[in-house]
Amino acid sequence: MLFLMNDAVFQLDDVQMDPRMTPDLVGGLAVSTILELGREMFAAEPRLQTQFPERARRLARLIAAKAPTTNAAQFTAPNAGCPPQTVTARFARVPSEVIAELRTLQQAGELDAASAAVRVWGRLAA
After folding, report:
1. Three-class SS of residue 34?
2. Residue 91, strand partner residues
3. What is the DSSP letter of 15?
4. CA atoms within 13 A on the CB side of 83
5. CA distances for 52 relative to 16, 57, 59, 98, angstroms
6. What are the residue ranges of helices labelled H in the chain?
7. Which pTM does this prediction carry?
8. How crowded is residue 102: how many other Cβ atoms within 10 Å of its Cβ?
9. How high is the pLDDT of residue 126?
10. Which end of the chain is less enclosed by CB atoms within 10 A, N or C?
11. Is-contact 87 77, C-beta < 8 A?
12. What is the pLDDT of residues 57-96, one digit of tens each?
């Protein structure tokens, strides 16, 4: 499964979750808890998807495990070290063709926040 996080496309099929994240534990997590975790991660590092891609992939895997129809997430932090509640977040289900197109752009080194935003969120990135 491909998953878009901000301006990075991740292949999730091979993501290794923390062994402590058993199916029972993930099943017991609320989407709001995963959302708060994502906000905390992006508050600490607004470019998590590029600076710490494995952490971002694990977060994407958690999102997809809890909300299987979701294949895109956007976290926007005003700056590094900001309070987590100031990080905006949204999830989406994007057609597989669009995600595949974004992955092709990424592999060519041409995927950026603006092109992802236009194709997925329907607006230019700020």
Report:
1. helix
2. 73
3. P
4. 2
5. 15, 9, 11, 24
6. 23-28, 31-44, 48-51, 53-66, 96-107, 113-116
7. 0.86
8. 23
9. 47
10. C
11. yes
12. 999 999 998 888 999 999 999 999 999 999 999 999 999 9
